[in-house]
Amino acid sequence: MKNTPVDYQAVQKVIQAYGLPDFGKATIREVVAISTELEQQTQTEFIHMEMGVPGLKPAQVGVDAEIEALQKGIASIYPNINGIPELKNEASRFIKAFMNITVSPESCVPVTGSMQGTYASFMVCSQCWPERDTILFIDPGFPVQKQQITVMGSRYESFDVYEYRGEKLREKLESFLSKGNIAAMIYSNPNNPAWFCLTEDELKIIGEMADKYDVVVIEDLAYFAMDFRKELGTPFEPPYQPSVANYTENYVLQISGSKAFSYAGQRIGVTAISDKLYQRIYPGLTKRYGGGTFGTVYIHRVLYALSSGTSHSAQYALAAMFKAASDGTFDFISEVKAYGRRAERLKKIFTDYGFRIVYDHDLDEPIADGFYFTIAYPGMTGGELMEELIYYGVSAISLSTTGSNQQGLRACTSFIKDHQYALLEERLKLFSQNHPL
Ligand SMILES: Cc1ncc(COP(=O)(O)O)c(C=O)c1O
């Protein structure tokens, strides 16, 4: 029996009731269920760092546009599957303004969140060539994307990029791509769960490899412009959100409304397909669908089959948010910088009590403070640490569920409340006393 903030026996009982053979492999939803149950049962407040849900108010400009559109009666009409012109035009302009990349409005397609964008991209990419049926994950990554592959009965391969930063990435990618079975590769930048950002040199390597092996790169920009080390928020002025699109035309970008605009609830994002890829004809697509290009199959076959388009009013919302951002009247980055300030404070508390940041550098530069960070405690596996912290009322997910080979946890800053820094400090102090180094 230990002097832990959450009753020791209560924790053991609840965890046992879930019948998990390895607690370290618990999913985010299981960790949420366990911590919420314990919170209610023991009346002890938990510091929830497991879920990657926006903790800020949705951008008002989006809400207003959506209400206005609804009041005009658009709810009764099926949205055009290609996307409303307002959103297509503003998406193209937004990509120019904040990435300095040119994608025509035609190639910017609304999706019901990046979640649908990656699902549709995995499908189309793995149908292009009969012999290429596998998606390569540059991990760590967002676990649900692997679940998407499982749902569609497809295949994936992956590697933890921790050991392969910089020039080492080239050889590693080559070892996978040279086998001839990879249809596309995917990564998120900034990275979920580790918040590192691939450098320009690394993106260039990925672009070069994509061209050499004619493989599509799916660049998941769920945390668009949220590398707060750089001032990425001034439209049409550098610095810009880095992208593989500067180095190859074999790309599909996923831009989500969920985090940058705190608009997760309405399920809205944009897939931007390079103009060249959009127009390209692939043997596998011609055989399967009787015709079509990458872009038209993506929209008229796959998205049509999945959801018949994207909610009309949410498209108006995203169009308005993109427009206001590109016009310079809505500084979306300043709003989400709150996450960076939280991460800085939280990381200090963790490291003061013996924890270390696992993915801590982009080569020689310390990583940014943002939505997530990763922590480890000497001598403990990720699974052990995740379980042990539950006794201290702190919940986070193990990196092992993200394709990482490192022992540690992902902590998310989005649900942290102002009074919880002191609470975390108190609990970690006790934790470090109980686990002397
Ligand atoms: C890396 C990554 N990709 C995609 C998503 C999903 O985004 P959306 O809400 O646009 O479907 C998330 C959400 O957490 C994410 O972290």
Q: What name does the CATH topology of the largest domain carry? A: Aspartate Aminotransferase, domain 2
Classified in CATH, the superfamily of the largest domain is: Type I PLP-dependent aspartate aminotransferase-like (Major domain)
CATH class of the largest domain: Alpha Beta
pLDDT < 50 stretches: none
**Which ligands appear in the coordinates?**
pyridoxal-5'-phosphate
Described by strand count, sense and barrel closure, the largest sheet is: 7 strands, mixed
Q: Please give the order of strands in the largest beta sheet.
A: 2-8-7-6-5-3-4
The total strand number stands at: 15
Q: Would you tell me the structural class of the helices and strands?
A: alpha/beta
Shape: globular
- CA radius of gyration is 22 Å
CATH second-level architecture of the largest domain: 3-Layer(aba) Sandwich
Number of domains: 2
The SSE order reads HHEHHEHEHEHEHEEEHHHHHEEEEHEEEH
Helix amount, in percent?
40-55%
Question: What does this entry look like structurally?
Answer:
With 437 residues, this protein is α/β, with parallel strands linked by helices. It folds into two domains: 8-56 and 333-434, Alpha-Beta Complex (Aspartate Aminotransferase, domain 1), CATH 3.90.1150.100; 60-327, Type I PLP-dependent aspartate aminotransferase-like (Major domain) (Aspartate Aminotransferase, domain 2, 3-Layer(aba) Sandwich), CATH 3.40.640.10. It contains 15 helices and 15 strands. The strands form four sheets. It has a seven-stranded mixed beta sheet, with helices on both faces. Helix 4 (85-99) packs parallel to helix 12. The longest helix has 21 residues, at 332-352. The model has no long low-confidence stretch (mean pLDDT 96). Pyridoxal-5'-phosphate is lined by residues 52, 113-115, 142, 188, 192, 220, 222, 256, 258, 264, 269.
